[in-house]
Design goal:
Layout: H1 2-23, E1 28-32, H2 35-39, E2 47-48, H3 49-55, E3 58-62, E4 69-73, E5 76-80, E6 86-88, E7 94-95, E8 97-101, E9 107-115, H4 116-126, E10 133-149, H5 160-163, E11 168-184, E12 195-202, E13 208-226, E14 228-232, H6 237-241, H7 249-256
Parallel strand pairs: 1-14
Antiparallel strand pairs: 1-8, 2-7, 3-4, 3-8, 4-5, 5-6, 9-13, 10-11, 10-13, 11-12, 12-13
The protein binds zinc ion (ZN).
């Protein structure tokens, strides 16, 4: 009798442990909505930053109304608005598009004197396959950074490729900071920007945005391989009624690269 009780207690703890491990599985990217929805002008989503924060401490995206560029770093949500100002966001704010994760580096590379193209090539050489997702964090000193942000939109919302024609561009020289983002495989085009989708935030949290170009002076490149993506689709009327049959690849290149 006593043995059976012990066995049950052990079984109970094993089950508890498995559940805990499954819930805290670090290698999941949680994403709300898709880049195609954003390309199609779906700029309002139902998810709050509070809910997103439960899914990760690191990521990129935007806020409802396409209100600037989101950087989630060390569990804090920042917005780089259209004027270039960095604002710490309230957790009740909602997002129409974000990809977040619990960042845990699998690989660390030290690098110096790299252009944005060389940075991408270096990471490409250091990952086992182009066909998985990776969270990418680059911390260090940049001799040059070029970013952009977008103006908050009013309804009826124009397509993203129209909005980015009027984007604000910011340039920084000799600045410390972090690149935060996701490398998405081609097989998932339509879900997130294929290739590198990186946002920048300065170390003093006074500047940043969606990365357009950079020159690294010296930096640590941290790569976190992700096999799993949990895609949460919004049940808003705009999303339910949208037609995603058109290939947005060309628009994505124009709007995001
Ligand atoms: Zn972006």
């Amino acid at each position: 009798m006593k043995n059976r009780f012990t066995a049950l207690v052990i079984l109970f703890f094993v089950l508890q442990l498995t559940t805990t491990i499954a819930q805290n599985k670090p290698d999941i990217i949680f994403q709300t909505s898709t880049i195609d929805a954003l390309m199609n002008g779906i700029y309002d989503g139902p998810i709050s930053l509070k809910d997103l924060k439960e899914k990760g401490n690191f990521g990129v995206g935007t806020y409802n109304g396409l209100d600037g560029e989101m950087i989630l770093l060390d569990g804090i949500f920042y917005k780089v608005d259209f004027s270039g100002k960095v604002i710490k966001m309230n957790l009740t704010t909602q997002s129409p598009f974000a990809a977040v994760t619990k960042f845990k580096a699998d690989k660390k590379i030290s690098a110096s004197r790299l252009s944005f193209k060389e940075l991408q090539e270096l990471i490409d050489k250091n990952i086992p396959s182009n066909n998985l997702f990776y969270a990418i964090k680059v911390e260090g000193k940049f001799s040059y950074v070029k970013t952009r942000s977008v103006p908050k939109q009013q309804k009826p919302y124009p397509k993203l490729v129209e909005v980015t024609k009027n984007q604000a561009v910011f340039e920084f020289k000799d600045i410390k900071g972090t690149l935060v983002g996701i490398r998405t495989p081609e097989l998932a085009k339509g879900i997130n920007v294929p290739g590198y989708h990186l946002h920048f935030i300065s170390k003093d949290k006074t500047g940043g945005g969606h990365l357009l170009a950079c020159d690294i002076e010296n930096a640590e490149i941290l790569i976190d391989q992700k096999q799993d993506i949990l895609l949460s689709l919004p049940e808003t009327k705009e999303f339910l009624d949208a037609n995603f049959s058109k290939d947005t690849s060309e628009d994505i290149k124009k709007a995001e690269k």
